[in-house]
Design a protein that fits this description.
The complex is a heterodimer of chains A (393) and B (382).
Chain A (H helix, E strand, L loop, with lengths): L6 H17 L14 H14 L18 H13 L8 H14 L2 H13 L4 E4 L15 E4 L3 E9 L10 E7 L10 E7 L5 E6 L8 E12 L3 E2 L5 H13 L4 H17 L12 H29 L5 H26 L17 H8 L10 H11 L8
Parallel strand pairs in A: 1-4
Antiparallel strand pairs in A: 2-3, 3-7, 4-5, 5-8, 6-7
Chain B lengths: L6 H17 L2 H9 L6 H9 L18 H13 L6 H15 L2 H13 L4 E3 L15 E6 L2 E12 L6 E6 L6 E5 L6 E5 L8 E12 L3 E2 L5 H37 L1 E2 L2 E2 L4 H29 L5 H25 L11 H13 L4 H24 L1
Helix pairs in contact in B: 1-4, 4-7, 5-6, 5-7, 7-8, 7-9, 7-10, 8-9, 9-10, 9-11
Classes of the chains: A alpha+beta (393), B alpha+beta (382).
Chain lengths: 393, 382
């Protein structure tokens, strides 16, 4: 065992922090705030990262990457999430849609889809959930009729992030056949969002714009060469992909940053020892949060270690994911509690404590335990795969 | 960065586990707990012959010098079978204190015997920093020529009835000082505590016990700094032992909820039960990660004050969560003493209350957070 980051990863962190210091405008608060500058900024930011060779720093060189290690990638994820993810929607391309295409795409698909991602030129969304298929995702009914060289898609997807950004492409789960086992008969399509018959409808969210949408498909014709992986057997492809997605967002890194900001505010607001630095409740709450965030960080590193050694960390990723989610939500709730009544003054008001960052933290992490597989679903995975328990209800 | 066990680490775990599974069954544990010594001398000999407990003792003193991370792996295996042994009080606390502050002649004479398992040393759990002593009067040492005379009482000394030497912290005019005392000396009386965990703990009363000046460890007035360097190491090994205890509490729970049927299906097929077991797994893995990180930092000689406190805090939370969860899902069976669960949850409670309380370690972490906030502010101002 060894807990040291490789030296090149540490050096990369220093360079990346200096770059962020220079590039992030003072108004930047992530893409879910009502600010028309946000999405165009993320596109420009990704292009700049691409020019430096950092956008796909850990992708293999043949796909436009720099061949960096899993730990360089970890530094990237930590710094990005800690700074409100300035890659915007494109983190999904980089974390798992691109890698899925690398592993399961045809040579032609890799050539077609990966270079635009590596250049920072393309936004993807994912079409998984449906009005009748959420946690029970495999019961999805959006249908793709199979023809010789094309599919015809009909149905509806929901809760799609960034679809209205607008997204250029969609990783879409469809049903291509019916069988007794509902996991069988699911396929993955790579869908051009400009195809006739696709309608995107934004859904208002507590968090802000681009968070959730509905996508309608009406007789949408998708060429056969946009099928990713085997016909009818897309479920296993996407399940393995989601294990990577679960450790793809370094939620613990933002938790650590919020804790640091809270400590700065409460323990040293310019006076060396403000009264709040002596308040036992604040001290102990923050200490407890810090320890939980550290545990989450190390459990992510454990899953990444397994991945770096060539394994698929299915249960370890779920364990890390649950810890990530809980700590990210907890820092929002506890942080606002420690702010007192001023905590309710939200971002946008000049009187908001810490620029409203803590209330954003609370708001943006409400769905953290729901998205990409609810916490209860993660616990079911851990129960069956790690604890050997029977399927439970 | 690599948080997966290396082949050597895995080999160590496997060989300790194989031996303990055979030699330390739950009926052995029950027998040992009821015995006068409180540990199994045969098993202790076997462990010492393999060099497992002496991983923190250098080869120059006949130790196996494997480092703290390896020691935590052994600690976890001991916990998995609820093995009561002098490993922590003797091979970690006593040996480390001697290595740090013992005078050469004493170290040369005593430490190789300790490493070989031929001499048991110990120290009161009440001397751990942050320990609330409930205003216990403790021991007073007064100088009598070239000797010292110690009077008073120390509580919770593990294995005192078998120990040849016990480190006793006493007040002197020069501050708190650690003395190496032979509990068989004139004027020493020991009495076994009735305690929740099962480990053999003794109260040790001293009435004008004479100790030579060369038996001072860590210098006159040096006890606090000696203990500050010794106990963090013991805390980390203790946390590993607790992780092992909780692993078995979880394993017993899983066996029970897989086999016991109610309402026509196994208990584990109810999510309220299954998720409770998952919560135990989440807590155990968190605690293990933190303590291994702390152990690695100590092995690398990096500052680890915050990491040790974090490991203890998280391990305490684990003990509470696992004990409550395991006793809940095991139902009435879980508190029958014929069933093994109580062997593990009682020891987990004892660990939780040892090596500094939850609030002590919360305060250690908080103080570090305040310090870091000041450093960041100073950096910005500069």
């Amino acid at each position: 065992m060894n807990f040291d980051f490789p030296q090149n990863a540490e050096e990369f962190r220093k360079e990346l922090r200096a770059f962020l210091e220079q590039e992030l405008p003072s108004w930047w608060r992530g893409i879910f705030v009502h600010d028309d500058r946000a999405i165009p900024f993320t596109r420009e930011f990704c292009k700049k990262l691409a020019q430096k060779g950092w956008l796909t720093i850990s992708w293999p060189q043949e796909y436009g990457g720099a061949g960096g290690s899993a730990w360089t990638e970890t530094v990237m994820r930590e710094e990005m999430w800690a700074h409100n993810e300035p890659r915007g929607p494109q983190y999904m391309n980089l974390n798992y849609i691109g890698p899925l295409i690398m592993r399961h795409g045809t040579p032609e698909q890799r050539k077609r889809f990966l270079p635009p991602m590596a250049a920072g030129d393309v936004l993807w969304t994912q079409g998984f959930s449906e009005p009748g298929a959420g946690s029970d995702l495999a019961s999805l009914t959006t249908r793709a009729d199979v023809h010789d060289d094309y599919f015809v898609v009909n149905g509806q997807k929901i809760w799609n992030s960034f679809a209205d950004a607008p997204a250029d492409w969609c990783l879409l789960l469809v049903r291509t056949s019916r069988s007794d086992r509902k996991q069988h008969g699911i396929s993955i399509l790579l869908v051009d969002m400009g195809t006739p018959g696709i309608t995107v409808r934004p859904i208002d969210s507590m968090i802000g714009p681009h968070d959730i949408n509905e996508i309608y498909f009406e007789d949408v014709v998708i060429p056969r060469n946009c099928l990713l992986g085997p016909l009818d057997n897309g479920w296993s492809v996407v399940s393995a992909g989601l294990a990577f997605e679960r450790i793809g967002v370094a939620r613990y890194a933002r938790a650590h940053r919020v804790i640091e900001d809270l400590c700065g505010q409460l323990f040293n607001d310019g006076r060396r020892d403000p009264q709040s630095a002596k308040d036992i409740y604040s001290r102990h709450k923050l200490a407890d949060l810090y320890v939980r965030a550290e545990a989450a960080r190390l459990l992510n590193y454990r899953a990444i270690s397994i991945q770096a050694a060539g394994g698929v960390p299915t249960t370890e990723a779920s364990i890390a994911r649950v810890h990530n989610t809980l700590i990210e939500q907890m820092v929002g709730h506890v942080g606002l509690d420690l702010m007192g009544s001023l905590g309710q003054i939200a971002m946008g008001d000049p009187e908001a404590p810490l620029g409203g960052d803590i209330s954003r933290q609370w708001l943006e992490t409400i769905p953290a335990s729901v998205v990409a597989g609810a916490v209860e679903i993660q616990k079911n995975i851990i129960a069956s795969q790690s604890l050997g328990l029977p399927r439970s209800w | 960065m690599d948080l997966v066990l290396s082949p050597e680490e895995e080999m160590l775990v496997n060989s300790v586990r194989a031996a303990l599974t055979r030699k330390c069954t739950s009926s052995d544990v029950r027998g040992t707990e009821a015995s006068e010594r409180g540990y199994d001398p045969g098993l202790w000999k076997l462990m010492c012959e393999n060099g497992w407990p002496a991983l923190l003792i250098p080869e120059a003193f006949a130790g196996s010098n494997g480092g703290l991370l390896a020691m935590t792996l052994v600690g976890e295996e001991l916990g998995r079978v609820a093995c009561d042994s002098p490993t922590i009080p003797c091979m970690v606390v006593f040996a480390k204190a001697l290595l740090i502050g013992g005078q050469d002649a004493l170290v040369d004479e005593v430490l190789p015997k300790v490493a070989a398992g031929a001499l048991i040393g110990s120290m009161s759990l009440g001397s751990c920093p942050g320990e609330d002593r409930w205003n216990h009067p403790g021991v007073l040492a007064t100088e009598r020529g070239c000797k010292w005379s110690l009077s008073g009482e120390v509580l919770m000394v593990p294995y005192a009835s078998s120990a040849a030497l016990v480190l006793v912290v006493a007040r002197t005019g020069m501050g708190l000082t650690a003395f190496c005392v032979d509990p068989r000396s004139n004027g020493v009386r020991i009495r076994r505590h009735d305690s929740v965990g099962g480990e053999a703990l003794f109260a040790m009363a001293l009435d004008e016990v004479h100790v030579a000046a060369d038996r001072i460890v860590g210098g006159l007035g040096g006890a606090e700094s000696l203990l500050d360097r010794t106990w963090p190491i013991a805390t980390v090994v203790g946390a590993a032992y607790a992780v092992g205890l909780c692993e078995t509490a979880l394993r017993l729970s899983l066996e029970h909820v897989r086999s016991r049927h109610q309402f026509g299906r196994p208990l584990g097929a109810f999510q309220a039960v299954a998720h409770r077991c998952v919560d135990m797994r989440l807590e155990i893995d968190a605690a293990r990660s933190l303590l291994q990180y702390a152990a690695w930092r100590l092995d690398e000689e990096l500052d680890a004050a915050v990491e040790v406190a974090a490991a203890k805090l998280c391990a305490n939370q684990m003990c509470q969560s696992v004990a409550r969860g395991a006793h809940q899902v095991n139902g009435a069976m879980g508190f029958s003493t014929e069933y093994d669960l109580q062997l593990f949850t009682r020891r987990a409670k004892a660990f939780e209350l040892t090596y500094g309380s939850t609030v002590h370690h919360l305060e250690q972490v908080a103080a570090a957070l305040v310090r870091r906030a000041h450093e960041r502010r100073d950096l910005i101002v500069a």
